[in-house]
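Subject: for your reference before the review

Hello V.,

The reviewers asked for a structural picture of the protein, and I figured it would be easier to keep everything in one thread rather than splitting it across files. Below is the amino acid sequence we used in the manuscript, unchanged from the supplementary table.
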Amino acid sequence: MTQAETPTSSRWTSRLILLNVCIGQAIVGIDQRALLVALPTLTESFHTRLTTIQWTILIYDLVLIGLVITVGRLGDLFGRRRFYSLGLLVFVIGSALCGVAQSPAQLIFFRALQAIGGSMISANGRAIASESVPREERGKALGLTSVAFHVGFITGPSLGGFLVDTLGWRWIFYINVPIGLWGAYLAWKIMAETRKEEGKVSVDFLGALLLLVTNSLFIYAIDQLPRLGWHHPTFLLTISFSGLALVLLIVTELRSATPILLLNLFRNRLFSASILSLFFVALSQSAINFLIPFYLQNIMGYSPAQVGWLIIADSVIIMITAPIAGSLSDRVGSRLLCTVGCSVIVAGQFLVASLGLHSSVMSIIFPLALWGLGWGLFNTPNQSAILGSVSMDKIGAASGTTATTARTGGALGVAFASTLFTYMLNSAGLSQTQIESPESWSTTPEPFVTSFSHTIHIINFFTLLAVFCAAVKGSREYIHEPKH
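And here is what came back from the structure prediction:
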């Protein structure tokens, strides 16, 4: 029985629940982007290096990827309202502690605590939104949560810059406190608990630990790959230990009565094909998001502020199309929309790869907008398919798997783009000094533009794989409700 179907639920309550989830998505999006603009200020404030401060970003991703499936599964077992509300509180506490941090080590540690709360919000928020509305409105609800995240994603840099310039960098974290507290209170008051009373439930702590170790080591290795190279002992040891932990994880989960990682979900073609297409799209998009600012700023000569305005074109289009695509998926299913969306992304990325030294502003904005249109058509229907393809007691685990897939694909995309782009430049005869000095690229831009173009064409191949996965994912089938 969904929350929308309980006697005490009403359409107004469902809307409040959806609003609450959107608030959670928005503050996570704002925090994720606002901190980026504060990194130079943080290096000055703490008199440290950027390589140290970057761990405030990396530690958040490591913890989130390592925990999001686990806390999603725990939400399935012990109640999503409990874990979502607790996640908001932990996020608030972590934010407040980040605001009073007196050293880089403290800030990094408190960011890890904040990420624990963020993982609870990410894993359980969209699961709650999915089940708080009738099935025929699920896509529309997930579209609105996507809009909320992108509102935060767009406003994060400008809000963060304003706070840094006026009140100071600590207010990037303080601003989360009142919003998070209100969200936690509202969630606890209006959400119905989802746990079924079935006696004592055991928790697979070993599986949770192995999942955290596997993902953390893997993402750390991928993050270090562009700097260390494929043959560096640190990379090889880290990736090997990650592989060993993965083998132990699979053995443990196959033997567990209540596994954290539900491997049987991947027997469902709709679920597995949707997850794979998300992985390939996230990989290609993060790779190009990593390269685009270098092209715009270091080759084309745009200022950081101008680059910021140019690259939000895709997010603006996503905000418009995501709820529309969600509503359409409620009527026509996910396969057609996801296939068309991935195909549009391929076209947009092809046009990005065709950009040159004399491309106009409109010729830059158009492929980014096309890219956003494709993502808007793909993402919400794909999420709806993933969450709709599993039973209600596994929806938190499915939501966590979605977040982990997107983050892991994103990390791989950045590492792959950096490695491939560097290899192309080396092949063009450029020295390591030239490659590592982006400010000098404009003096001899031709090899950089050529390498940029070839790299994106290769990356676009992964999006073609996403088109294939979306096309073969199967017909619209949901197992939340019994078939009549």
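For the response letter, the relevant points are probably these. The first helix runs from residue 11 to 45. Residues 140 and 324 are 7 Å apart (CA to CA).

Happy to draft the paragraph if you're swamped.

O.
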